Amino acid sequence: MTGFQRDLLLTVALLSGTNPSGKDIMHELESEYGEAVNHGRLYQNLGELVDSGFIRKLPLDGRTNVYRLTERANTQLHDHYIWAEKCLRLIDEETVG
How far is residue 34 from each of residues 6, 9, 22, 28, 83, measured CA to CA in Å? Predict the structure, then answer.
């Protein structure tokens, strides 16, 4: 999984409780990144995450789809969080020590 795909999962998680469309996800990422997100890159990666079972794509109306994390995505994000926390603890220990 690429860093951008992980950011997509985190963004969908952030927007849970709403009906996040691709456009909503794009705006949130652009706000976080401080720059434009390429439309093709966004939807290609969302499609790959759907195909690999990390995201469910559900129709909202005739033109709009919404995205939801699967249990597999929740597990992936949790595992990444544990790993990142471990790495950051080591950095903190090196900085203090």
Answer: 17, 18, 18, 10, 26
Q: What is the pTM of this model?
A: 0.87
Percent of the chain with pLDDT over 70: 97
Residue type, 16: S
Q: Residues for the chain: how many in total?
A: 97
CA distance 6 to 4: 5
What digits encode the pLDDT tens for the residues 25-55?
A: 999 999 999 999 999 999 999 999 999 999 9
Enter the CATH code of domain 3-96.
Answer: 1.10.10.10
Q: Are 5 and 16 in contact (CB under 8 A)?
A: no
Structure tokens at 1: 């999984």
- No. of helices (H) and no. of strands (E), the chain: 4, 2
Under a CB-based contact definition with an 8 Å cutoff, are residues 13 and 19 in contact?
A: no
- Give the single-character DSSP code of 62: S
Q: Per DSSP, what are the bridge partners of residue 81?
A: none
